[in-house]
Amino acid sequence: MAKRADEARDAGRLDEAVKLYHQALALNPKWAEGWWSLGTLLYDGDKYADAEQAFEKVVVLDPKQGTARAMLGLCEFELGQSGRALKDIEASKTLGVLEDKQLRDVVTYHEGVLLQRAGQFEAAKAALSSLCLNGVRSNELAGTFGMVALRMRDAGPPDVGTEAGQVVQHAGRGACLSGAKEYEAAKTEFDLVIARAPHFPLVHYAYGCVLIDARDITGAIKEFEAEIAEQPKSVLPRLHIAVAEYKVDSAAGLKFAEEAVQLEPDLPLGHYLLGLLLLDTGAYERAVPELEIARKAFPQEGRIDLSLATAYAHVGRTQDAARARAEFTRKKQAEQAAAEGAVEITDAMDARSNR
Q1: Which of 8, 163, 168, 311 is exposed most, by the fewest CB atoms within 10 A?
Q2: 3-state DSSP helix/strand/coil % of the chain, to nearest 5
Q3: Contact (Cβ atoms closer than 8 angstroms) between residue 259 and residue 290
């Protein structure tokens, strides 16, 4: 029965093959390869609900089958089960996907879409940048990357016939070029879109992020300031300026961190950056409460303990300084895990509403 099913599949008699796989699997429901073959046929035939059930069988029978987990995630994506799809696709990356570049690219792209819709823009940027670095280019990719760059959580990019659609496309192409480390071409793309739509929300912010990647700090700060001029209550560009100025001109960055905290007092990241800048400018008394707020929000982040130890030492709290250093040492033993959970500007903001 299995042989007849495989022969029908290879000969292109797909309906017959599906029927034969069903019959064979009724005889031997533990035949993982059969469930896999049936699942791929159903997926290719756009029968995603049935394909989902087949790939679930494969995953149960062979939990380490990363490719089946990826295909399960793709089925769930098509069925609108975004949360489950993202979970399974990310699990497939850990387990490993077969050496099939086309499938890996499809899975990575869908991961980027799911992360974009979930508002996890930094993680989406990383996924889509890997495609761009590998030479993948398409209007579909540009549309999704444009929404990531502009922090849009919509289910799909705006129509390309509209101004918004054109902005998203150009921003996406620029972000993709930046992801491929083609920074000059990326700058050209953003110069074009900003000349056409200088007041579009977050377009200056998106360009500033590209310039940060290109190590053009001066240009990036200029674009972040332009975004603030367009959206005076925007917190995100202020945080980026604070980061860019830290250890370079911390006094200049201090203003922007203070404004971010005033605008968003419940945002722990703002307090963390403000604490770092106060520490770097010698305002140790003021730095302590800001860093304590950050430590409470990010208890696993050892770098905060180290900064607090320095601040405590300068204000004469020697026992607190010793405890903070001990905490830093303890956490450093799990340095790899701490690095994976390190505080990033956009990651920390992604947990909140798009501002």
Answers
A1: 163
A2: 75, 0, 25
A3: no
Cα distances (angstroms) measured from residue 58 to each of 11, 15, 36, 87, 288: 24, 21, 6, 17, 54
Q: What is the pLDDT of residues 216-239, one digit of tens each?
A: 999 999 999 999 999 999 999 999
Query: What pTM, to 2 d.p., does this model score?
Result: 0.88
Per CATH, domain 233-355 is 3.90.1590.10? no
Residues 6+ apart with CB under 8 A from 73: 84, 85, 86, 87, 88, 89, 91, 92, 107, 110
Residues whose CB is less than 8 angstroms from the CB of residue 23 and which lie 6 or more positions away in sequence, other chains included: 1, 5
Distance between CA atoms of 127 and 102, rounded to whole angstroms? 15
> pLDDT digit string (tens) for 134-186?
999 999 999 999 999 999 998 889 999 999 999 999 999 999 999 999 999 99
Rounded Cα distance between 234 and 272, Å, is 18
Residue with tokens 């905490």: 327
Which residues does 76 contact at the CB level (< 8 Å), separation at least 6? Answer: 52, 82, 84, 85, 88
For the record, the structure tokens of 199 come out as: 């007041």
Burial string for 181-218 (b: 16+ CB within 10 Å, else e) reads ebbeebbebbeebbeebeebbbbbbbbbbbbbbbebee
Class of domain 1-98: mainly alpha
Q: Confirm if 346 and 269 have CB atoms less than 8 A apart.
A: no
Residue that has been written with the tokens 């798009």 in this structure: 354
Total count of residues recorded for the chain = 355
CA pair distance 276, 282, nearest whole angstrom: 10
Structural domain spans, the chain: 1-98, 100-231, 233-355
pLDDT tens per residue across span 35-88:
999 999 999 999 999 999 999 999 999 999 999 999 999 999 999 999 999 999
Q: Report the alpha-carbon distance of residue 223 to residue 207 in Å, rounded.
A: 7
